[in-house]
Design a protein that fits this description.
Rossmann fold, Aspartate Aminotransferase, domain 2, seven-stranded mixed beta sheet, five-stranded parallel beta sheet, 26 strands, 15% strand, binds pyridoxal-5'-phosphate, pyridoxal phosphate binding, PyrdxlP-dep_Trfase_small, lyase, decarboxylase
């Protein structure tokens, strides 16, 4: 049943008049439920609590001014009906159509039935147009419950209903997801691969929302979106300029395409965070120097930069677009699809501003990571000149012929939700919530008297903005930062645990973050990433006040249990179960002390820092190495014997989640720190059950870790 809200601010409003009561009765006869909530806070706040409302009837005399004043923040589509005297209604001007949907209903109305019909029509129209075009068409199709004889094979869910297991599966999701899970055989929906019908409408809506010339919906994640852009941008033998802090999908691109990579080297800090690439890495001189080191490289045709980084560092993208002397520039913005929708991100995303003369800009984004979309929903955006038929072909090369329509709809809705006042507010609320969390944690830290967690952030966070990683400031720990080039995004919150200062100095006592993270997980809080002495929390659109408070409480609970030195068995039952004998008599403090001691003994921050100092030597390009791998020209060696060998795989410890060794790279004496670091990671896991690090490209056998290397010629 649709709800209409009655909003007034006076005790004797027009709502109590006989004519109004008549009108309300008519509306109830039409099936509406009328609610007259008490208005304590602002109109905007109240409506935000009621996103399901079908419309609002207001008492014009007491609410009109406030309604006009709130125009910039309200859902511009929600229909408002202003009850007012006939004389006043004649004089009133309808407001700017884009900002507010407002109709005046004069009272006493001669015909309550007619007034109710007018309201009903407006509400129906509101719901008809509320959803974006593809999603609207898909829901309409699902509602029609057609008798399909095409894929999907479950036939809109019916297959499940004839099987016990199927039934349990079906019941969990409910009917609609299956009714919407249809295929390209349905003619009403157009085609994703051909970019026709409502699919085309969806992509056009997305392009407008993100300030792109053209956008593509990708249903297999930014992992695939990246490969689409990459394969369009390179041809055989090209040189590509690539962020060494790249996602593994970019490494896979290098393995798939016969190209020569040269790397943009990011900064790092002692916390083990990968920072921004310094501005001088983007200059002609830097590129010339890198080319001079190789005899198979030519001027790069394509450059890829991660913006933001995992830890939430954004670039001044306008500067990069203007100054990087490469024709095709790709920003991998998997983490920051929200950037166009708040002014604090101005100039910090790939599609910002106008097109750049002589350059084509690409941006890829995971709608599912930070917007409200299903997993795998992703976008490719393009700005500038490109060959449409070739890009369409590459897109098709990587796209399934049976796209999941609920994912397509969620990619569209995730974008459409961000446009307009409500989307802007939604994001603003996320930012505000992260700010509240940061301030609250700082307060608890200051008041704790002993120890507490704190956020990785500047000392002064009074202003809500992206904070520059400025040279000379100590908090961020990045040496040689550029002035006004890299910025910390406030909604990506890294929480520091005690034990290390920003220069990497390990203190006598400390609490490795892995323990806290494990504890939190036992208490229903899941972190995004855990470093040696920091944990990352994302304040995405779905994070509300309750979740924020629960996180704060869990951190306080940890402190209480730590200070009371409770047994592991109590504090972390899942860890205890992993190895009851080992953890039998151990307490929380004993565990943290033990782990911290290992970190100190091996000086983990330094190992981690230097592991990325000198890159291993590129003996073969990733493509050549992979060809050898395919031909079986490889063998396994114990990790400890990697020195002097050429790795067949990428070796990627998580965190920081960045490739340490690329396929075809040789670990030499100069880059031996790589090995020390990997050994250290393995050792911690062996000493403390449950604390092993995930390392892609290293295989755990009974007698330790192994890696795959290329046979010698
Ligand atoms: C997660 C991520 C990707 C891959 O995105 P998916 O949508 O998970 O496939 C690519 N690049 C970066 C920087 C990422 O963080």
């Amino acid at each position: 049943m649709n709800v209409l809200l009655l909003l007034d601010r006076a005790s004797d409003s027009i709502f109590d008049s006989r004519e109004a009561v008549e009108l309300f009765e008519e509306l109830e006869n039409k099936g509406y439920r009328l609610q007259r909530p008490e208005l304590h806070g602002s109109l905007v706040d109240m409506l935000e609590q009621r996103p399901e409302a079908a419309g609002a009837i207001i008492d014009w005399d007491t609410m009109g001014g406030e309604l006009y004043a709130s125009m910039e923040e309200l859902n511009e589509r929600l229909p408002f009906f202003a009850l007012t005297s006939p004389a006043a209604a004649e004089e009133l001007q309808p407001p700017d159509k884009d900002k507010l949907t407002l109709a005046f209903v004069p009272l006493p109305c001669r015909n309550a039935e007619r007034a109710a019909a007018k309201i009903d029509r407006a509400v129906r129209r509101y719901f008809e147009l509320l959803l974006p075009p593809f999603t609207r068409a898909l829901f309409k199709f699902a509602d029609a419950k057609k008798n399909t004889f095409c894929t999907t094979g479950h036939l809109l869910g019916s297959a499940f209903r004839h099987h016990a297991m199927g039934w349990a599966y079906y019941k969990f999701y409910g009917a609609n997801i299956f009714r919407a899970d249809t295929s390209v055989s349905v003619p009403d929906m157009g085609s994703l691969l051909e970019h026709t019908g409502v699919h085309k409408d969806a992509e056009e809506l997305i392009a407008r929302a993100f300030n792109a010339d053209r956008s593509y919906i990708v249903t297999n994640g930014t992992s695939t979106a990246n490969k689409i852009v990459g394969m369009y941008c390179v041809s055989q033998g090209d040189t590509v300029l690539i962020d060494r802090n790249c996602h593994k999908s970019m490494t896979h691109l290098l393995m798939m395409c016969d190209v020569v990579p040269i790397y943009l080297l990011p900064t790092r800090n002692a916390y083990g965070m990968i920072g921004g690439i310094p501005a001088d890495e983007f200059t002609s001189e830097a590129i010339h120097y890198k080319l001079s080191q190789r005899d198979d490289a030519t001027w790069p045709t394509y450059a890829v930069i991660s913006d933001s980084t995992y830890d939430g560092l954004l670039y001044d993208c306008s500067w990069i677009k203007a100054n990087l002397p490469v024709k095709k520039i790709h920003f991998d913005s998997a983490w920051s699809p929200y950037a166009p929708f708040n002014l604090i991100y101005e100039n910090k995303f790939g599609m910002c501003g106008e097109s750049t003369a002589g350059k084509t800009i690409f941006e890829t984004q995971s709608a599912h990571k930070m917007l409200a979309s299903f997993a795998q929903a992703s976008y490719v955006h393009v700005k500038g000149e490109y060959d449409e038929s070739v890009l369409d072909e590459v897109y098709m090369m990587h796209t399934t012929t049976s796209a999941n329509y609920p994912i397509v709809a969620s990619a569209e809705t995730g974008a459409a939700m961000m446009t307009g006042n409500q989307g802007r507010r939604l994001l603003q609320n996320s930012i505000d919530r992260a700010m509240t969390f940061r301030r609250e944690l700082a307060r608890l830290h200051d008041e704790s008297g002993s120890w507490f967690f704190k956020c990785w952030q500047p000392d002064d966070i009074s202003e809500t903005k992206c904070w520059p990683i400025s040279r000379g400031e100590r908090w961020h720990g990045f040496l040689g930062a550029d002035e006004d080039f890299n910025y910390l995004d406030p909604i990506r919150v890294s929480v520091l645990t005690p034990g290390m200062d920003p220069t990497g100095q390990l203190m006598e006592e400390g609490i490795p973050a892995a323990v806290v993270s494990r504890y939190l997980n036992n208490h229903g809080v899941v972190t995004e990433k855990t470093g040696p002495y920091h944990m990352l929390f994302l304040f995405a659109l779905g994070v509300d006040e309750t979740r924020t408070k629960a996180l704060l409480r869990a951190l306080q609970d940890f402190k209480r249990d730590y200070d009371n030195d409770v047994p592991i068995r109590e504090a972390m039952p899942d860890l205890f179960k992993l190895d009851p004998v080992f953890y039998m008599n151990m307490s929380l403090q004993q565990l943290t002390r033990g782990l911290h001691r290992v970190m100190r003994k091996r000086d983990l921050p330094k190992l981690m820092y230097h592991a990325y100092d000198d890159l291993p030597e590129m003996e073969y390009t990733p493509y050549q190495a992979f060809q050898k791998n395919l031909r079986g020209e490889t063998h396994e060696v114990p990790l400890a014997e990697l020195l002097g060998q050429v790795s067949a795989d990428m070796i990627l410890p998580y965190p920081p989640g960045v490739p340490l060794v690329m396929p075809g790279e040789k670990v030499t004496e100069k880059s031996a720190a790589v090995l020390d670091y990997l050994n250290m990671l393995c050792e911690t896991g062996e000493l403390f059950p449950g604390f092993d690090t995930e390392i892609h490209g290293a295989y755990r056998r009974k007698d330790g870790y192994y890696v795959k290397v290329l046979d010698e010629e």
